[in-house]
């Protein structure tokens, strides 16, 4: 007995330790240890790990200090013990933050089981410049030709660090794109800096920790400038130099020595530059010409003789528009090796990387000096196996490389990117081998958060394509496509995909940055451009479904991340847009002429084929529906922000638009004008159908789908909500039939045709293997991938109960067409798991609920007496209704099982 007691006492600390919560994954405004934030009140978040079920945070303490020791003299904020369950986006409210200062922070929490965590490991955030006067550097402009095509520009400055260095930071930006070098080495791992914004009003700067790159004594800082979006061709190759025709640099290096003294190395008139660059041509659409024979060894290192270089000019460019980067940087994310190297029937040498992607290739080659290699990029091959680039339109999308000779040469382009799966190689010396080419995948470095799998391999391939469509087009801004002479921030595309995007990846900082540009580009009358940044300049034109990005995306981000700040920041823009529609629509509340694009690229049969309905939806119906929806979301946003007057005002406007919609576009039987799928979908999704007519309107929608032999006829605006509306109105079986349709038009038709991303058109490649209109036929265009939202929310069943997934709804909708489905989602609280599996007539539902959240789980077609929870009879207070059993859960992992009889299809979504 004594021996047993001794063992129990020995195990007791281990048990207690296992139940002690752990605080981890600290972030400041979604970012891990960010450097260069200019947010005066950053928001701090953390996750809690506990093995004990039903764990909630009861209180927390945050300490912020200027030293990692957290000594009292260095503390700028100590909350003390705060009774709160908040662990997401807690606003810093300490002493005013100083520019160019690192702040360390840590947190501890107490849970509802009377356990206290240890202090978390310290995290930090480092500020940039809060004031324009913090900039002591000058804008410098190298001597250059104000020509459409010019070499990249190279600049350098030699300086002396006279003492032992404690720390050093570079603050830099450019008019154009820039790369920085210190003592011959590239600074940082970011690509295509400073990114793309509305340059006249917002220009980002980056901050780099370069302490390890400097040495006591002589040093050199260098920079290379490329055209990028600032000067290069944009918008169908119809313009160049949209913001300015000259490139410039702003660079400030701040050094702190170990004795506490400081030194600042500024961009100023002492810098020198040259146009004698090996990058002889660069552009977003054109690609790059690189002549390695023109390389200048040691140009960014000490000991180089720059006597032949030309002094730069100091210019008076605006610094008030400079903003710290609050989004995630563009980086090299992964690499792909060739899956095939072959010659086309006409003899073109082709390398296949197996995946339509965005980025570039790294070339590795040995050959004689002067050898010229030409590398073209394409998404697809034609029906004969030939390289196909006609859909690139005016984009040259080519890398030209000239060898310097003398050994192995390795090259990646500097100021461009390509959308491609295949490359065509000309002039390569010798036989091409897999090690000669590596595809480098480049996009905004957003953390992956969501995964979805099921028993159907084609649906898994569709999910793969959805994710790769996002990877290919979330490159600092949400582009429509990455390959042709466009690559613009189309607002409608981003709007329809934003919820799906937020499942796949953490897009909160990405959209927060871009939405500020949406507001910056907003017209004086409240209208929103078709693209942001607005390089089309379409005479202040606005289109329903596109302009609504100003309302829908902030609301979506609030729902997914519980981020009130994006609502606060964007609210003036949201309100101005809805007020613009109110004025345009007038007293009758019908927004005539408000839709420029209609239900863009909706399916239609041949233009002269009248044998079936063509899916056409009245543009005015679309405009009025979005008018109502944005008014509703604006009202709800006002409620969240405590603006009760606006909440009522815009709520009343929604009701009046709804009344006008019913009067003008609905019959008493529930039929909607034009009888199109999109008409029914928008009306039902946006709450415009009276409760008494919802079932009838949904039945008409089903009739249309069935009359088309389970094919859709929707475009960019109707497609995202099609399956969702069907499920929400008791027709999940029809939604599944649509999802699993393999013939055109459908989601799986491109998969069947070999797609590795989402296509712009339902029939980008036709059934006879010919192509759609070459003038507009992208094979990497994410909009139709918005069906992913339904897959995650309905097939797997992960839904939002309260913003940010503080309260979760788990409502899987199984189907006989799958044997299992599983989704995981990394939320701000931790990972949610929802999975179901049918084996031997037993339904197994596996769920994980993160710490500091709760969940409502719906077990479809279950009876309380049959359900086993973790192998035991169900306890608690389950609720039974006609659809199954509902269980309330706290945090933890659970397994439920019960008999499954395939007698009825998925039930109505709750």
Automatic annotation (TrEMBL):
Ranges for domain Alpha-L-rhamnosidase C-terminal: 797-871
Domain Alpha-L-rhamnosidase six-hairpin glycosidase: from-to ranges: 448-795
Keywords of this entry: Hydrolase, Signal
SUPFAM superfamilies to which the protein is assigned, alphabetical: Six-hairpin glycosidases
Every Alpha-L-rhamnosidase concanavalin-like domain range: 343-443
EC number of the protein: 3.2.1.40
Domain Bacterial alpha-L-rhamnosidase N-terminal as annotated: residue spans: 163-332
InterPro entries hit by this protein: 6-hairpin_glycosidase_sf, 6hp_glycosidase-like_sf, Alpha_rhamnosid, Bac_rhamnosid6H, Bac_rhamnosid_C, Bac_rhamnosid_N, Ig-like_fold, Rhamnosid_concanavalin
Record-given protein name: alpha-L-rhamnosidase
Lineage, opening ranks: Bacteria, Pseudomonadati, Bacteroidota, Sphingobacteriia, Sphingobacteriales
